Amino acid sequence: MRKRISLLGATGSIGIQTLDIIREHSEQFQLVAFSVGKNIAETRKILREFPVQLVSVINEEDASQLQSEFSHVEFVYGDAGLVQVAAHTNADVLVNAVLGSVGLNPTLEAIKKGITIAIANKETLVTAGHLVMQAAKEYNVPILPVDSEHSALFQAMNGEKRSEIAKLIITASGGSFRDRTREELKNVTVKDALNHPNWSMGSKITIDSATMMNKGLEVIEARVLFDISYDDIEVLLHRESIIHSMVEFEDTSVIAQLGTPDMRVPIQYALSYPDRLPRPHAKRLNLAEIGKLHFEEMDYNRYYALKLAIDAGRAGGTMTTVLNAANEAAVALFLQEKIGFLTIDELIERAMDAHVNISSPDLETILHVDAQTRKTVRNMLK
Ligand SMILES: NC(=O)C1=CN([C@@H]2O[C@H](COP(=O)(O)OP(=O)(O)OC[C@H]3O[C@@H](n4cnc5c(N)ncnc54)[C@H](OP(=O)(O)O)[C@@H]3O)[C@@H](O)[C@H]2O)C=CC1
Ligand SMILES: CC(=O)[C@@H](O)[C@H](O)COP(=O)(O)O
Ligand SMILES: [Mn+2]
């Protein structure tokens, strides 16, 4: 029987590549429900190709319009719609590729329904990883990583005992501005920042990659997913994005996962796990053609956002919620050209400094702190 998939964020970078995999392996996978935001033109295309049962959009008017065009599909909307798609009872796997901490509630509700989670949506793990992992344990639901580094770590660990792992080494490309000093970042434009050297991704994560907050979020994501302490997670600058991450074991062996930078590989692995499926048309890795791979130590003054993220992770409690919400708000302001690039770090640091940390927060507290932090950051501009 085919694996039935519900997909949050179908019109995004990961969403579109997930549809590629479902299309390539239509004998293995079936899309049963999906969510989008506001891209209704793309939604119509998906609806014409995939015979799904349920679709969620952000706006009620879009849901009504689509309902009049596609009478055999059920349309829902808003945050409640996201939850309905995520927890769709006919799904075996939820691919969570929505952007931002709005993915938290749908993830928790899907877990309660016993649906396996393939997670790209790192903001959910950063804002409330402890709630996701607790629920996954309680309902015995696998959480499979889609983020390339975490898929690499998961593959390198290959089920070996935690006690045999010495450290995780997460690679970082350095993003759009890796060859510039911090001083040279004062007047960079949105267009410059969106020009990632190796990956084609959505706008928010591309900015996160340029500030290096993406790597900070990924360190927290690794801590949450693999239960490894911050002391044993290292970040290594690797400009080619060929080694997606590595695990060093106690016997000094290091196991890495390599591949061309193509998110369809980790997406497919999360869907096919524990099996592997062929990708006959994909570009294969040719190390002789690449010739050299480069590695450099991280500079935490140059990449200040990475330091802020690790500080937040070590503080725990609601501090990672503040880090994430402040970052989401600040990146949105940068993309709207309301603040400069370096102001992103500044606003996040100010939000963290102003926050009184709350340990072991429940869902209500997380949602409250998230909303308050976004307000605080926006008010900093007044
Ligand atoms: N892109 C990549 O290669 C990678 C991404 N990730 C993570 O995956 C997630 C998605 O990233 P990416 O695909 O790049 O993002 P995109 O911006 O390309 O896509 C985001 C998707 O989420 C939808 N969306 C955005 N906001 C909302 C909202 N408030 N409510 C409902 N739907 C919403 C968008 O809808 P619409 O466009 O219709 O408005 C779109 O479908 C992020 O958490 C990112 O960090 C992780 C590793 C790699
Ligand atoms: C494809 C992916 O997983 C991104 O998170 C990617 O890792 C971004 O690259 P850098 O953050 O290393 O620039
Ligand atoms: Mn990544």
Automatic annotation (TrEMBL):
EC number(s) given by UniProt: 1.1.1.267
Record-annotated DXP reductoisomerase C-terminal domain positions: 258-375
Reaction equation(s) it catalyzes: 2-C-methyl-D-erythritol 4-phosphate + NADP(+) = 1-deoxy-D-xylulose 5-phosphate + NADPH + H(+)
An example Gene Ontology molecular-function term: isomerase activity
Residues the entry annotates as binding 1-deoxy-D-xylulose 5-phosphate: 122, 148-149, 173, 196, 209, 214-215, 218
Keywords: Isomerase, Isoprene biosynthesis, Magnesium, Manganese, Metal-binding, NADP, Oxidoreductase
Positions annotated to bind NADPH: 11-14, 37-39, 121, 123, 202
Span of domain 1-deoxy-D-xylulose 5-phosphate reductoisomerase C-terminal: 143-226
Biological pathway: Isoprenoid biosynthesis; isopentenyl diphosphate biosynthesis via DXP pathway; isopentenyl diphosphate from 1-deoxy-D-xylulose 5-phosphate: step 1/6
Positions of Mn(2+) binding: 147, 149, 218
Keyword ATP-binding appears in the UniProt entry: no
Domain of life, per lineage: Bacteria
Cofactor: Mg(2+); Mn(2+)
Any single GO BP term: isopentenyl diphosphate biosynthetic process, methylerythritol 4-phosphate pathway involved in terpenoid biosynthetic process
Record InterPro entries: DXP_reductoisomerase, DXP_reductoisomerase_C, DXP_reductoisomerase_N, DXPR_C, DXPR_C_sf, NAD(P)-bd_dom_sf
1-deoxy-D-xylulose 5-phosphate reductoisomerase N-terminal domain span: 5-129
Record's function text: Catalyzes the NADPH-dependent rearrangement and reduction of 1-deoxy-D-xylulose-5-phosphate (DXP) to 2-C-methyl-D-erythritol 4-phosphate (MEP).
Record-stated family: Belongs to the DXR family.
Full protein name: 1-deoxy-D-xylulose 5-phosphate reductoisomerase
Organism for this UniProt entry: Psychrobacillus lasiicapitis
